[in-house]
Protein: JmjC domain-containing protein
Organism: Rangifer tarandus platyrhynchus
Amino acid sequence: MAGHRFPVPRFEGVSQEQFIEHLYPQRKPLVLEGIDLGACTSKWTVDYLSQIGGRKEVKIHVAAVAQMDFISKNFVYRTLPFDKLVQRAAEEKHTEFFISEDEKYYLRSLGEDPRKDVADIRKQFPLLEGDIKFPKFFKEEQFFSSVFRISSPGLQLWTHYDVMDNFLIQVTGKKRVVLFSPRDAQYLYLSGSKSEVLNIDNPDLAKYPLFSKARRYECSLKAGDVLFIPALWFHNVISEEFGVGVNVFWKHLPSECYDKTDTYGNKDLTAASRAVQILDRALKTLAELPEEYRDFYARRMVLHIQDKAYSKNFE
Ligand SMILES: O=C(O)CCC(=O)C(=O)O
């Protein structure tokens, strides 16, 4: 595939000061190695998680294929006790299954009432809390959520962005993450916060010709690695092995900028949603014009937006 590829830089033994003063302000993805994450990286085996994590019911994504697609919804939601989910996600073939014996599982843990509560594994899995330390690279009051990410081997999660800053902690297993800059959104064929291009390694360029222009940042995560994913950076995740991850979202901006009904960390900022609604109204108004005039004023509006709202500071 054509297009630019960049490795995500890796940093070993970074201090709180180095991260906050030098790395964080660049707002680019990076992998932190050697962060003290507690005992989870050695303790969280399938047996241990099944015993200590308990039998709490969790809602999971189940698919017959490895490449999960949120737009066409090629998966179903099911519930399983946490211990069963861990056991099934760790096996390649299942004797008990919902769709097929080689179905894939994905857990993105939720709050007690997902419509109202954000996920915090310390609350939903209190017996595991003592095993994991989150990187202390943001203030406690900025914390938003902590989420279990447990996936079957081979599972690929669709490309999407979130609106909060994020540490993706790889606790066990290997994962490949491909990221795209928010500045390349125009090449990603977006439907809401998700990209329509599922097969990022072998994309259908007849259908998605602009995708080859997207700059691709790539890293492999192993147990103990922490990937910093700045808000709005698109990410696509492939679990190369059964793996357990935890991601921590935190608020980079003042709390009032975020949508108060957002429990996932992926609803657009309130000012962005308002701007989009106003644009939709402007488009309805433009539709009152004959085609030749609509086209002319639409082009002028695009130029006006570029002039007034695009940042001059990004490469
Ligand atoms: O690691 C995963 O399974 C997905 C991670 C992710 O999408 C996130 O941290 O926002």
Observations:
- Residues 149, 151, 157, 162, 166, 168, 175, 235, 237, 245, 247 surround 2-oxoglutaric acid (CB under 6 Å).
- The first strand starts at residue 5 and ends at 7.
- The chain is about 20% helix and 25% strand.
- The chain has a mean pLDDT of 96.
